[in-house]
Every structure is written in structure tokens, then in C-alpha cells.
Give the backbone structure.
Amino acid sequence: MKKLILSVLTLLSFAQCLYAQSPGVTTEAAFQTAHPATYPSAQPLLIAPDPSVHLRRLARIDTFVNDCINKGWINGVVTLVVKNGHVVQYKAYGYADKEAGIPMRRDDLFRIASQTKAIISVAAMQLFEQGKFYLDEPISDFLPAFKDMKVVDKFNPADSSYTTVPAKRPITFRHLFTHTAGLDYPLIGTKEGKAIYAKAGIPSGLGEYDGDLKETMSKLATLPLTSQPGEKWQYSLSVDLLGALIEVISGKNLEDYLVQNLFNPLGMNDTRFNIPAEKAGRLTKVYTEDSVHHIIPWTKQRTTIDPNYPLAHKRYFSGGAGLTSTAWDYAIFLQALLNGGSYNGARILAPRTVEMMTTGQLSFLFNETDNFGLGFGITSALSAAREVRGEGTFAWGGYFGTTYWADPKNHVIGLVMTQQSPNSHGDFEHRLEQVIYQSFVR
């Protein structure tokens, strides 16, 4: 009889375990309650003061940003600061379209360009958590065209011809996350990479409408690498390739995957590759500079990128550059990571996965000072000693003048959203960080 009771209790216990692990049964709140140290607060962002922020010192942001606009350094900007889960500053300044006299609004839409990369990296790590790949697995297991890659040995700039040597090792997923695959970038890469990619018609991803991402990445596989995999940090099309791998592994196009697995769960309703027509009025104007550094409107005639690309119906989903978003949506994304992978009841990653992503992965420094994680630049102890960001801050930015950082040590998120490239006064963002951090009094 005693054995029977024990057996029944064992079965009940096992059934409880199965029930607790079933999707939609055990809530995130239950995990938070049971493991408060492991699972930090995942409440939605609150627009509210925080006792660690000195409000009068915080108001210096207004003075600084308005001074930058008055000096003609920028036309408009949205700033958003989160401290301890509280949105303590969230304002729009200047103009979204100066020529038309349209003021900047907090919910305006920005072309976030390379800030797309962090989102794609998180999406890929969701598949990692499902055991679909491991970080040091060759990507040729999923895209066979990337097997037996070649590396440029000698390059002739006169005609972009080259000789090659075999790659010493295969490209792995970790190489893609950390920009150490040996790939390069059109327009902004090395002289060899820019020339070779231009000759082959490889796009940067910005402003691409048609074409198939997987087909373009297969074409990329026919070209040589510009460095040996794993030996050098080189900003590159790695995350576009990572996006193609998400499509192959998940069986969905990149936009559908992101909407279903990131944007809808987190409530990032304004972050998309394709912005619907009803939101067109919220898309900010893009600016550039003339030869004497005066701010002028960006036109397709001045560049190859149509500034209206967020409104076009695209089939080419650039994992490295294609998304449009708002300051608020991106703050939600970053807060989910600071929370250890959850936000407002939705868990997108496990805490350990986030810890891996925001820890340096390289045995060398990518910019002579900092390490690089799985999708982010990581602030080193040396950088933290020299600047205001805390050690372990993960951050990056975008081509059109957007930037972000998330500081786990000080529980801070900062977003500065502009639409200007280039900007000879781009260091205003760096100065603005100093103004933000001086408002934190404990």
C-alpha cells in the first residue's frame, strides 16, 4: 500500500511538472515570484520619476539639446532615458521636417539602420535556445554554398582582380554574431571588400526593395572573404547572413518571424521592415550635409538610397539595416534584455542567454578598447573608467544618426534618435550622455 501511495505521489508530481512547463500555463509572474533574484522585474515601462534622478539636473538635457538645434548641429531629435525601469525623460525637440515646419513628436518613426542588428541577433538566439544550432557550428550545415570559402591573398585595385588562399576554418554562427566571419561591407567596408562587392552587385541592405535575401547571400558565398574567419573584427554583412539563416532554420521570412516572435509579444507595434501607409505621416525626414557642413535634405539623387524606403513594399529583409522603429519600441526591446529576457509577461530569451549575448566573446579588443558580444559592443573596465557608461554596457547605433545603450550596472537605458548622415557635430550624442548621467545622484 505504501508503495502504491508513493507511486501515485510520484505521478502527481511528474504531472505537475508537465503542467507547469506547458506553454501559457505557468505565467512569467509566477517565475518572478519564485525566483526574484534570477528573474528581475519585468513590468512595463512607466513614465514616472525615480528617486535616484535629480529632476532639476535632468532638465539640463533640454538646455543642451536646444542649444545644439540653435547652433544648427541638428534639426530634430527624440531622447528617451530609462532609470530603474522608469522612463524619466522622453521628449521631442526641433523638427521632423524643418522645411515644412513639422515639429518632431515623441512617437515619430526613425530609420534605425544598424540598430536592426541587435534585434536580429536576439531572434537568432531564440532558435539557439531551441537547439536548432550551436554557436561554433559551421553555417554551411544550413547554407552549403558557404563551405570551403576562399580568402583574398593579393588584390589589384586597378581592376579589382585578386588571388585567393583557402580559409583556415569554416565560418560559424559565433563569427557572424561577432563580425569575425571575414565578410565585408559594401560602401563602408575595406577598399578590397567595397570593390569586390560593388563589382558583383552585392547590396548593403539599406533601401533594398526586391530580391531574395537567401539568394543574395548565396551569391555572397561565391566571393572571397577579406580576412580569415575568427582572426579579425570587420564590420560586415554578417547579420544580413544571420537573417538569411533565420529564414532557412525557421521556414519563415524574416519579417514574419520577427513579428510573431518578438514584436507582437513585446508590443513593439511600430517596428517593421514595411511601414503601413497610415503611419507615413510619422516618418521623419532624413538630412545630410553639403560641402561646408550645412544641413540639407537627403535626396535619392545625392545618394543611391531612397529616403522613402520604409514606406515601400519590400521583399528584401535586410537583417543588418532594414528596420524602422520608434524610441519607445526600442526602449521596450532594451528593457526586456535588462530584465533578463522578459517584459510585461512575455519572455523572449532566458537570462543565461542574455548574459552570453552581453558578454565579450572575443579574445581581442574590437576597437582597441572594448570587446564585442553576440550582437553588441561591450563597454570595458577601461572605457567605464574614462567615460560615463558603466562596465558591461551593451550598445550600438545606426547609419542615419540613431544610437542606444543599455547599462546593467547603473540600470540605465539611453536612446538618441536623429535622422542625419553624415553629421560633423555627431559628438553631440556623446556629450548628451554626460548630461544624462550627471542627473543620477545615487
Remarks:
- Residues 2-20 form the longest helix (19 residues).
- The first strand starts at residue 46 and ends at 47.
- The chain is about 30% helix and 15% strand.
- Residues 102 and 135 are 47 Å apart (CA to CA).
